Amino acid sequence: MLTLFLKLLRTLNSEAGPWQISFAAGLALIIGLTPVMSLHNVLILLFAFVFRVNLATFFALWAIFSGFAYLLDPLFDRLGYQWLMAPGMADFWTGLYQNDFWQLTRFNHTVTLGSLAVSLVLFVPVVLLFRYSVVGYRAKVMPTLERIKIVQALKASKLYDLYQKLP
User: Fold this and answer.
1) Fewest CB within a 10 Å sphere: which of 19, 47, 52, 121?
2) Do the beta carbons of residue 122 and residue 69 sit within 8 Å?
């Protein structure tokens, strides 16, 4: 976990594009908040590997968002239950579940449906928030940190050399 955190920190200080980091955060949000064994998570992994997102950020934030998912599962369960039990939606859900493909999506599982709905709603705000944060960090915080004496001393140490050699 420490290695992932260091890679994330290294990514923030690197030349990686802000959009690469931001979309990695958005995809990690979806896969982190939803149950792992879902068809849509296979698609999210495919997107992460095919499109140019920062994988260190993706995996680090996946772990972080997964931790939040355990705290939010009761909310996801209630939301998914309300959607599945909505009076006008019974025929829709029954029709979907009679098709083999839609059974693979596990939308009949309340936590899966609720967490996917929440993560899809939060996707765009998270991507925009991360992009704004990365650009702001690089423009304001990083130059300020570079001028602090303790940071300069750490950069001169062997510990920083080990940090630089991380793959």
Assistant:
1) 121
2) no
Residue of 9 and 121 predicted with greater confidence: 121
151 φ, ψ (degrees, to nearest 5): -70, -40
Instruction: Please tell me the number of Cα atoms within 13 Å of 79 on its side-chain side.
Output: 14
Half-sphere exposure of 113 (CA within 13 A, CB side): 17
Whether pLDDT at 11 is above 70: yes
Which positions ≥6 away from 166 have C-beta within 8 Å?
3, 6, 7, 10
Q: How far is CA 65 from CA 26, 42, 70, 89, in A?
A: 10, 17, 9, 30
